[in-house]
Amino acid sequence: MADDTRFGHRAGAAYLCRVILEGKSICHTGRNEKGIACRQRLRISSAIFLLFCSLSSYPQSDSLNPVPGSDPRPVLQKKRFLAVVAGEAVLAGASVLGLNEVWYDDHTRVPLHSFNDNREWLGMDKAGHIMASYYIGRIGIGLMKWSGAEHKRSVLYGGFLGTGYLTILELFDGFSSGWGFSWGDMAANLAGSLMVSAQELCWGGQRITLKFSYHPTGYPEYRPELLGRSPAEKLFKDYNGQTYWVSLNLASFMGNGSRFPAWLNAAVGYGATGMIGGVEKFPGWQSHPSFERYPQFYIALDADLWRIKTRSRFLKGFFSTFGFIKIPLPAIELNKYGVKVYPLYF
């Protein structure tokens, strides 16, 4: 069952576009700590930009959270299908060509090579890759289903859209003297695509979703050029304040007769703290305060906005747009020092 409501995300897309287009001046430092860290974040920003453009250009489909008995046999609608394929091709092609000019023109082309960044940021950057790939795939599947494409074809073509797009950027990195192909990034991209696609094939919808939350920290004041100066920059750059969640919809595992609230989820999260550099001993670390770096794990309740029923088109658009955000609720943190309880955790 498709929802033909169109949602506007022009403000968010415009900001992300500005972030991407400013990447040349921000990330001209090449393969050093600042350059690589900035490059990682801008790569994720470009993926999110593609996601926002897709959302603003096409209607959402609720087929990723289907209502039992409401999934008729799909009938391919050629105009919709061609619009989806053409739109995705134009968006991806234009963004890749633009990024090629913005990010790589200061670096010479070299044979394909790789570099290992798996130890940086305690894996927080990889969590960002997984989430970006997951949501691009989720949108891709929804758009293919909206066009009437057959289920397995929707999953095959739409679910791996994120991996396909991000692989192009990784290859550009691999042929650039200033960067390098990251196998860790590729594994994270593939994990995101597999997560959304496997659930579609096994359950016909998303019972387990990825979510994001953020809270301000004091770490950017020590390295604002790396961790951000403005609130918007800190949101993207300060990994210390980010938490990535795996949110399980409990009712979807209980059967159709369950009276358990369909919107109530249980979530586990991952974060990290003490990071003012990609690694502990970054260039110039002696002139900065030393903080202990360690991972943090969370357990919390969550609300699945996609499963809240409403007749309001505005609320449908709001819930669909912000469903990726972890709702602030009580949480328990587990780390190397013990357990901490939060009345509300952002």
General description of the model:
The chain is α+β, with helices and mostly antiparallel strands. The chain folds into two domains: 203 residues, no CATH class; 140 residues, no CATH class. It is built from eleven helices and six strands. Helix 7 packs antiparallel against helix 8. The longest helix has 27 residues. The two termini are 33 Å apart. The N terminus is likely disordered.
What proportion strand?
Answer: 5-15%
**Global mean pLDDT:** 81
How many domain modules? 2
Shape: globular
Please provide the ordered H/E string of secondary-structure elements: HHHHHHHHEHHEEEHEE
Strand order of the largest sheet: 1-2-3-4-5-6
For the secondary structure, the number of strands is: 6
Helix and strand content put the structural class at alpha+beta
> Between the first and last Cα atoms, what is the distance in angstroms?
33 Å
- Percent range for helical residues? 40-55%
